[in-house]
Amino acid sequence: MKRVLALTLAMLFVLCALVACSNDQTNEGGTITPVESNVSIHNVEGSQYNDQLYFDYINGDEVVITGFAASHVPHALVIPEKIDNRPVTTIAAGAFMNKVNLTAVTLPNGIAVIEDMAFAACNALTSINIPDSVTLIGEAAFTNTAITEISLPNSVLALGQMAFFNCQNLATVTLSTELTAIQKQTFMNCVALTSVTVGDKVEAIEDYAFMGCSLLSSLTLPASVTAIGEYAFANCTAFTRPALDETVEIGTNAFYGTVSA
Q1: Dist CA 53 CA 28 (whole Å)
Q2: DSSP string of 48-97?
Q3: Which of 13, 121, 129, 208 sees the fewest Cβ atoms within 10 Å?
Q4: Measured distance CA(144)–CA(131) in Å, rounded
Q5: What is the Cα–Cα distance from 161 to 168, expressed in whole angstroms?
Q6: Beta bridge partners of 88
Q7: What are the angstrom distances between the C-alpha of 176 and each of 8, 186, 200?
Q8: Which pLDDT score is estimated for 60?
């Protein structure tokens, strides 16, 4: 377990370093070209909290949200479907990172990409909708938030590693049926997580994906799974190790601390 603790501390250090980075980061998937942050300002209509969205244009006539400013009073935000009569399609990397005044966010239909760390460390954020226009959620997009439940529409084709890392209030999750992998540390240390619904296309559950989810008891692995990574379910003390086909590749200590069937 010393190795596990050392790795966890190392990843926390890396995450802190990432949080300190600017919005100029790129997504390895090459989804969009990095933009210059805070080029234009949109004042959110009807807001009593002086909500301002910083934005730029991509792909000719689409809007990417690059930043946010508002009163420090905790409140909810509704992101408009259009700005300057152009559709809002992307939340840029780190756009809302560390915005501790956000309690809830409503995303418009038309959002396609939520980039890396888009809402990371919004530690008062308890709810957000994911519209069925979203196809990509980047790495650490919602890490260290207070989200209590999440339902990913089947439009979501990729969910980045650490997407919900350390979301300690997250209790229930429904994943897109189109996902083929649950990446590294996606739900690691989600200590309130009890139920996860997984689609039947998932082939790999990667290293540390659910490590430390001590209340997780409801998750059925589909027959499509061919690989389970190191420590994937380690210390999921309420989870019963499933019977798996002998062809499934199982990493070191994948089920350490789980209940034997």
Answers
A1: 25
A2: SS--EEEEEEETTTEEEEEEEE--SS-EEEE--SEETTEEEEEE-TTTTT
A3: 13
A4: 21
A5: 17
A6: 63
A7: 27, 14, 10
A8: 86
In tens, the pLDDT along 60-83 reads 899 999 999 999 999 999 999 999
DSSP state string for 208-224: TTTTT-TT--B----TT
Q: What is the model's pTM?
A: 0.86
d(CA 230, CA 33) in angstroms, rounded, equals 34
| Cα–Cα distance, 234 to 49 (Å, whole number) | 43
**Tell me, what's the pLDDT at 225?**
97
Residue owning tokens 């989810």: 213
- Residue 142 tokens read as 């919602």
Q: How many residues does the chain have?
A: 261
Contact 183, 205 (CB under 8 A): no
Query: Quick count: other Cβ atoms within 10 Å of Cβ 242?
Result: 15
For residue 242, the number of C-alpha atoms closer than 13 Å in the C-beta half-sphere is 15
Q: How many CB atoms are closer than 10 A to CB 178? A: 16
pLDDT of residue 261: 63
pLDDT of residue 10: 46
Three-state secondary structure call for residue 226: coil
In the chain, which stretches have pLDDT less than 70? 1-38, 261
